[in-house]
Design brief:
Strand content: over 45%
CATH topology: Porin
CATH class: Mainly Beta
Distance between the termini: 53 Å
Number of strands: 8
Oligomer: single chain
Shape: globular
Strand order of the largest sheet: 1-2-3-4-5-6-7-8
Number of domains: 1
Order of helices and strands: HEEEEEEEHE
Helix content: 10-25%
Structural class: mainly beta
Number of helices: 2
CATH architecture: Beta Barrel
Radius of gyration: 20 Å
Largest sheet: 8 strands, antiparallel, barrel
């Protein structure tokens, strides 16, 4: 590419995939630094990484029929310590069906969560969650979303986690049709 005299080269913008990868690396580095700074007892803390799971999702848009379905989740990292809030970063994808035969909706998101309290308790730990993702449906196309939810880690150990959360979905487009509420149940299990 040749430039004429007096032209200034424009910096190239990073591709969306590389920006997301960079953001994920920064979040993991910050969480790892916070974890390393803790002084918790070894028997009351753990780190889980790349833990698969299954999810059940019920989504009720403000206008229209409810959608229900199931999918797959991957807990990228979960840090639990007595002296710090537990934090996690994950990914999930689900396929939902509505009342109308043949219509399918795919929902994927990248999630971050943190407990409300500093505890290494293994059950009934309240948490909040935020997520960015996308809803894909044939009639509505692709719509980016932001989710916010509160939930409870019903059981949370190194090997098994059972969570239930409820919250709202705020789409970046078609908000009048897609804004709504969502209930998610997640069972994660560590493969050994």
């Amino acid at each position: 590419m040749s430039m004429k005299a007096g032209e200034v080269a424009r910096p190239r913008r990073a591709q969306p995939a590389s920006r997301a990868r960079r953001l994920t690396q920064i979040v993991i580095a910050v969480m790892a630094f916070g974890w390393a700074a803790g002084q918790a007892r070894a028997d009351d803390e753990f780190i889980s990484a790349f833990v698969p799971g299954v999810i059940g999702v019920s989504y009720q848009p403000a206008k229209g029929e409810p959608w229900t379905g199931a999918g797959f989740s991957l807990s990228l990292v979960q840090l639990v310590s007595r002296n710090h809030h537990s934090v996690g970063l994950g990914f999930d994808i689900a396929v939902l069906g509505g009342a109308e035969p043949g219509r399918r909706m795919t929902v994927w998101r990248i999630t971050a969560d943190s407990s409300f309290e500093r505890t290494a308790r293994r059950a009934l730990v309240p948490y909040w969650s935020m997520a960015m993702g996308e809803i894909v449906e044939t009639a509505l196309g692709k719509n980016g979303t932001f989710d916010a939810a509160v939930g409870v880690h019903l059981v949370r150990t190194e090997d098994v986690a059972l969570d239930v959360e409820a919250g709202g979905v705020l789409p970046f487009s078609a908000a009048d049709r897609l804004a709504g509420s969502k209930l998610t149940a997640r069972l994660s299990f560590r493969l050994r």
